Every structure is written in C-alpha cells, then in structure tokens.
Amino acid sequence: MGLFPLIGQPALKDLLSGSAASDGDVNKWFGAIIAVFLVGAASGGVLFGWLGDKMGRVRAMSLSILTYAIFTGACGFATEAWHVAALRFVASLGMGGEWSLGVALVNEVWTAKSRAVTAGLIGAAANVGYLLASLVSMVVLGHLASIHGTFAAVGLPETAVAHLLSSSAWRLLMISGALPALLTFGVLFFVPESEKWKAEHARGATAHWARWDLSGVVIGSVAALVIIWAWSPDGAARGVNAAAAILITILGLAVALLGYLYPVRKYLVRAQAAGTLSPDQGAAIIRFMLFGAALAAVALLGTWGSTQWASKWVIVLEPDPTKYAKEWTLFWLSVGAIVGTMLAALAAGHFGRRITYAVLCVTSIGGSLLLYQCNTTYSGFFLFSTFVAGAATASFYGFFPLYLPELFPTAVRATGQGFAYNFGRIAAAVGGLQTANLMKIFNNSFPKAASCMVGIYLVGLVIVWFGPETKGRPLPE
C-alpha cells in the first residue's frame, strides 16, 4: 500500500506514453488503480476470512502473505497501466485477507486486559511498513549509480538494468515488494494456531462453511469492478457518462453487498439448522457486519480519498526529485500514523469505543484541513501538517483491530470482521474515484477536492451511536 503512492506518478507517466501522458489521464488511472486495489482487498477480506474460519488462521494467513507479496513484485514487470491494476487487484486479495486473519488471531491469543495495546500495535506496525517504504525509496533513488554498478557487476544486461532503474526506479521498488513472501516460512513454523478456533473446530462449528458459497464473493467482486470501470478513463472513452455511471454504481453496490454477504448468510442457515447458532444470533451477526462496514467506509474513504494522495500532490509543490518530497511526506504521514493508532486504541480502551470513534472523526477533519488548506509550499510546516493529518486520519486503524473483533463470535470472527472492515473499501473505492472528478470541478485543485472528501467524517459522527458499546466485555464466544 505504501509503495504505489510513491511510484504511481512516474510509473503511470512511463506506461502511458511517457511525458506525453496528460496529468488528467495520470490522475484518472491513479484513482482507478487505487479503487481496484480497494475492491480486491474487500474481496480478499471475505475470501481469506472464509478460509481462516474454515481451515485455521495460520495456514490461511500464510497463503494471504504469499499472494500479496508475489503479485506486488510482479507489478515491476508491467508494460501497460491496466497490467498494474490487474496485478494489484490480485495482490490486494491477500492484503485484505491478511488484515482479517491477523486481527482475529491476535485478539484470540492475547488476554482481554492487553487487547487495547495489541490493537494499537497492529495499526502502528502497518504504518511502520509505510515508513520503511519511504526509506527504501530514498535509499534507492539516492544510490542509483551504485545500484547500476552492482547490477552490471553481477552480469545483468545493460538494457535490463536501464529498464529497472528508469523513471525513478519504480520497477525495482515494486519488485522489492515481493520480499514479504519470506515471512510465510516464519508464520508456518513459529506462529501457533488459535486455541479458540481449534475449540470451535472440534465442536463442529467450522464445518458449516461450503466452498460453493464463495460464488457470491466472485459475483460481488465483478459487480464492484464494473463500478470502477464505469468511472475509469476506459469507461468514459466508451461513452459511459456521469448519469450512467451513477446508475451502474447504485446497482453494482447492491449486487456487491448481496454477493459478499452470501457466504455468511449460507453459513448462518446451516449453523441454525444444526443448532449451534440461534436465529437471534444470526440476525445480530448480519447487523454488526453492516454496521462495521459503515464505520470502516467512513475511515477508509477519508484516508484513500485524501491523505493517500498527499505523496502524489507534494510533487506539484516541490517537483525537484533530489529533495525527496514525496518520500518525506510519506515518512511523516507514517510517523504520525504510528502515534495516532497507538493513542486511538488506548483511548478506546480507557474511555469507550463509541466516544473515541466520534473524537477521531472530529480530529480527522481538523488534521486534513490543516494539511490541505494551510499549505501552499513544501516546507517544514508542510511536513508537520502531514504528521498531524497522518496521526488523525490513520488513528482508526488502531481502533478497528480492537472494536471489530468484539462484535463477532469466534466461528465467524475472521469472516465477519473481514467483511466489515474490507467492504468499507468498496465504498472508499467508489468515493475515492470522485477525487479526480472533484479536481476537475475545482480547476484541478487537489487541496480543495481533498477538503471536500473529508466531509465524510461527519457521517461517522452519527453512525457510531447505532452500535454497541463493548468496553469491558469479553470477546463473544
């Protein structure tokens, strides 16, 4: 996730006919590729969550890591913009699944007293990855000559070396994204399976999952991708106007929602027939899945529609690549996010879940407006603003690993929270596509478009009060 905001601009310029590519085309493809990634993450959250509930957290987690690592690295060999979109879609299946499985496993293994701390660490650790992405980019760009010499010394052809290192070395950086595949060995050999899941498996509660139910996820994914296509440059080129795109969006979201819910609904029918789940419990699970998805949609749309574009926007403020403006922007966004995720989880543990989420919405509006309305040049204050915006808008990713697992019983925890968190990405994908459209309305001004997008946090201020307060309650069995 951290690599594409850094390399998206040079990669798309390279793939879209070099310097002849217009900024409008680059912006549309940038938004479309982010949207496709979010759709894949939503699909992967349900798909790998299903695998984790059926075959265990650890084995499914290993598959998810392998998926996102290999297909991220494969992006370095793309020759067309749509290749990047397709490869990142598959990579994001694993990324969405990894979140669902990792959060479920950690919450089931850790004691209740330390769950707030570990939830914060999950969110913080993800942002350490963003920070590392910025550092890797700076190291690579700062030592291109040395890297060129090293590759030549080991016998790589000059044409291959030049290809890897051209256009800000975006291909080499994407290939480096394959390194996490090595983690699969550590996970398989050293990470213990959840005892809670093993208990559910022993009593037969995991036997109610059926692979044919995943057809709903496939249909939901196709519907979501059709929405992305309708708003993409290709859709516009084929005559899909705004009215048609809106209609496709409404119908597509309905189909996607039913499709992603299908595996869980079928599971609940079988579990209720077997007597392992009551009808009231089944209704509550569906209700909490929809509630969680709404909460996640607000946070994800706020992030992917505004702050995820900051590393791309800063190139306009400071086009000199030797100043590493986009890398430092991602660095300070990540440092802020690490602080924000820890504080959010600790606050939710101390003050309660609902009031904390509401406060996070308010601070996210303030942090985003500070960044986009109070900066017109790349400066120390700009980087301070990115730190504040990162801390505010990323704070939700320390909150969700604490709150979402508390909404679902063990037998459906990975799938339930995977749907809740990752289906929010569908809404974020559709909304994020409007960033480029808003920029056109505001004379190509990204700060104005991003400032409009953060209004979504006002919706979160209302939604959160319709959910339960789970502070002090144990994880539901």
Structural features, described:
The protein is mainly α and about 475 residues long. The protein has a single domain (about 5-465), classed as MFS general substrate transporter like domains (Growth Hormone, Chain: A, Up-down Bundle). Helix content is about 75%, strand content about 0%. It contains 22 helices and no strands. Helix 3 runs antiparallel to helix 4, helix 12 (about 240-275) packs antiparallel against helix 19 (about 415-430) and helix 20 (about 435-440) packs across helix 21 (about 445-455). The longest helix has about 35 residues, at about 25-55. About 55% of the residues are buried.
What is the compact description of this entry?
Helix content is 77%, strand content 0%. With 477 residues, it is mostly helical.
Which tags fit this structure?
Growth Hormone, Chain: A; mainly alpha; 477 residues
Give the helix/strand layout:
Layout: H1 3-15, H2 23-55, H3 57-74, H4 81-109, H5 115-142, H6 144-153, H7 158-176, H8 183-190, H9 195-202, H10 215-231, H11 233-237, H12 242-274, H13 279-304, H14 310-317, H15 325-351, H16 353-373, H17 380-393, H18 396-403, H19 413-432, H20 434-441, H21 446-453, H22 457-463
Helix pairs in contact: 1-2, 1-7, 2-3, 2-4, 2-10, 2-19, 2-20, 3-4, 3-8, 4-19, 5-15, 5-18, 6-7, 10-12, 12-19, 13-19, 13-22, 14-15, 15-16, 15-17, 15-18, 16-17, 16-21, 16-22, 20-21
